Amino acid sequence: MSRAALGCAVAFAALAVLVTTGATARADAALSAAAVDAARAHPGPTRLAQLVEAVTQPVWVYLLGLAGVVAVWRRGRRRHARAALLAGALAALASPALKAAFGRERPALDAGFTTAGGGSFPSGHALASATVVLVAVLLLVPPRWRRAALALGVLELAVVAVDRVWVGAHWPSDVLAGFLLAGVVVAAVARPVLRPGRSEGDGDRPGAPGAPGPEARG
User: Fold this and answer.
1) How far apart are CA 100 and CA 119, in angstroms?
2) Mean pLDDT for the stretch of residues 106-115
């Protein structure tokens, strides 16, 4: 496991302990109450937040990531495509399993601003968005576009983080947990592809863009 994956795993485990022991309850409750009060007082931004909730549903986010995987696969970068696909699959499976295991209630479903249901920890929206952003930046996007992709990804994650708390779908710690779990999954899966000494095309289809030519392989 890479240092990044291990660091995220330790942080996620520590946060899970804090949540289950109630150590985050006061801060979570204060931030959630303030956000939901603001949502009640400002219907315009709340309608926008509900739109954000709809378009960032995990199923749509993962489908967008899948489109990127298909594009990279067709370009012959199949190690990258397989790693990206595995990261998405692990994240998609982890979300419902952990929600059921922790059984944490959502903060403000009675406010009527969200269509979310089921467990709250970790946030599935945050996990899906962070997984796809990290996969795109590390595995799918060409190097010359990575800075732009990272900037757009950080902006999208900030919007999702605010949205999940604003509509009362999640506690702030749920969102942080989703981001950390995405870091665990993507860092662990991407490491074999990105390890030092491996070129962009190592293990990809011969003759594809970015794959090593015959002289490089021989």
Assistant:
1) 6
2) 83
